[in-house]
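Study this pair:
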Amino acid sequence: MAKEDCFIGAVDQGTSSSRFIIYDASAKPIGSHQVEFTQFYPQAGWVEHDPMEILESVKVCVAKAVDKATADGFNVDKNLKAVGLTNQRETTLVWSKSSGVPLYNAIVWMDARTTSICSRLEKQLSGGKSHFVESCGLPISSYFSAVKLLWLIENVEAVKEAIDKKDALFGTIDTWLIWQLTGGLKGGLHVTDVSNASRTMLMNLKTLDWDASTLQELGIPAEILPKIVSNAEVIGNVAAGWPFTGVPIAGCLGDQHAAMLGQACSRGEAKSTYGTGAFILMNTGEEIVKSAHGLLTTVAFKLGKEAKTIYALEGSVAIAGAAVQWLRDSVGMISSSKEIEELASQVESAKGVYFVPAFNGLFAPYWREDARGVCIGITRFTTKAHIARAVLECIAFQVKDVLDSMHKDAGNVESNDFLLRVDGGATVNNLLMQIQADLTGNAVIRPSDIETTARGAAFAAGLAVGVFKEEYIFDSKDKMKDAVVFNPIMTKEVRTKKVDSWGKAVVRSYDLADLTL
């Protein structure tokens, strides 16, 4: 392909870092840059980000990636056709319309400070924890944006005042970045997309609009909410002050939905992304499948204003790669994340040690906000290698639990020859991928490009401006031609025993939230 051909950029704003990747017309990356940003933990269970630091990290990534691609001879300045954006979902912020200043730090998706609000709502509302499931597909949980917004309204005076003065704008990180990219105080667009909106607890899955009855019951004013758009359409143009002024922003998806697109998941196919958490989604086509086994019903994607809405079943695991980070940063057992594979490989099994990483409770399929982390089965024989292996196993066990629920819910949606497509930074760990195949009893397939989130955002933007065609995006044979397949080697008998033991460990983590001394 000639270097002067067209390019698509993708902003990938994650939980711990921001990236900007530039792709050519064959979806090959030709320039990228990544910047980590600060994680704030004001109290136990609280997690915050500085929205201004996130914005600055994106600015740095964009400038550096463009510089790198240009230095390699790619004429990005003239031939960047569109920009797509993907982001950490549910993370919530409110900022001033008149000043552009965030009124509080962004409350991150895994933050658990809203547990008491959730308990209050469950008691007040007739449907309890499932009160809003019929409209939005989600249970009442600290995970979702609506309760984080309620906390801001109830606890931050600046937010309450801004709402009273009609000066408040609510958004998830995609909304914040698009507002800034399109001008901010000088005409910035206040929008979100259907995938991010579906994670707020406020959007009706059928109408794809904010649900009026939900807003009324929660006391959330509609005027602070952004406009909802599809995942693949020209939203607006990049404003002055960025390296690609005038380029259309043409795609926006929550990170897990972007990964589904990057993995070319068609109806009945599933993927698992391993990052800070782990997120397993199965494409259910145009059918809204209600879960009876602890999963979430969500929008997968809507690839154009007039396109059909595609839905998904999702299981979200709060702590996956974050457990490895905990071993590194808090415990000091390893000095880098990649060391855990070598350490865990020193033993053939965890020898009865089970680690449940319920640092802020457990998400799907358990939904236990009273759970806390436990490590059980420790003896004098236990070494740090056994604990390291138990940490890797806990990631795979949680994914297996979600997949088991997914198999029960999917029914005739699921494909007969089930393969788990995997992506995300933790999938470079071959031992983890083999453990995953062993515990699920299914093949695990890892594509050559594991950063499928940014690729999915680029696909959406490219589709909107005619660079990519939908047939190409969903050509899974092309995407998987250099993939690595991990096949299960563990016997069914051993698998069953380990799964039973894991189940006992999970139960031991329940009802521990009140242990404060």
Remarks:
- The mean pLDDT is 92.
- The chain is about 35% helix and 20% strand.
- The two ends are 63 Å apart (CA to CA).
- The first helix runs from residue 51 to 71.
